[in-house]
Amino acid sequence: MEFKISPSSISLMEECPRCFWLDKHYVWKRPSGIFPSLPSGMDSILKKHFNKFRDRNLLPPELCNNDECDKMELFGRNEDEKELLKTWQNNLKGIKWKDKKGNILFGALDNILVKDNRLIVLDYKTRGYKLKENTQDYYKNQLDIYNLLLLKNGFMTEEYSFLLFYVPSEVTETGEVIFDTTLKKITVNIKNAEILFEKALKILQGECPDKECSWCENIIL
């Protein structure tokens, strides 16, 4: 049996290997609840926002005012790159890599920066409250996987990625919501991504894990 693994399924595996196994074997899927539309809407608006600056060969103010982004530009410098980025950003297509046994690792990127012909993953996050000291740690696996996928597709990457957080701070008298932005630089660990993919396949190719969580405790095989 061939399996398709994404950062979200890796997160599920880390939380409960049994839920992960049941999901990928099409036995049972953990209820996901109502998906909030605001983050999805923000994601779409931000992509358009960044594209406007990219097409003018500029960085948006969230980045150009940050020394970390010195000498960088947005990916999409020609039509081929723009079309490629559209595919990578598409949740139904994304960026993929298939191993020798047909298992697929995939993900959908938010955006890419370029410095000295090396690609740098840029991921947007919308939060409803101020960041904690370790908030960015939750997303390290996701960024590692994105960088592994870029490497497997023949692109050179930097040893770091960026998380760009948008947090609402106030509402103006005319009703506009003002967001504070925080850019976090995260060191990339490709080996971690490889280990996670191998771990996922090892779990899926074995028997269903016995250890249960509150979600899957009543699922009987």
What is the ordering of alpha helices and beta strands?
EHHHHEHEEEEHEEH
The order of strands across the largest sheet is: 2-5-6-7-8
Summarize the amount of helix as a percent range.
25-40%
Low-pLDDT stretches are none
Derived from helix and strand composition plus strand pairing, the structural class reads alpha/beta
Overall morphology: globular
What is the correct CATH architecture?
Alpha-Beta Complex
Q: In angstroms, what is the radius of gyration?
A: 19 Å
CATH topology: Lambda Exonuclease, Chain A
Can you count the helices? 7
Work out the strand percent: 15-25%
Question: Tally of extended strands?
Answer: 8
| Span of the ends, CA to CA | 18 Å
In short:
By secondary structure, the protein is an alpha/beta fold. It has helices spanning 7-15, 17-24, 37-54, 61-64, 79-89, 140-152, 190-204; strands at residues 4-5, 73-74, 95-98, 104-107, 111-115, 118-126, 160-171, 177-187.
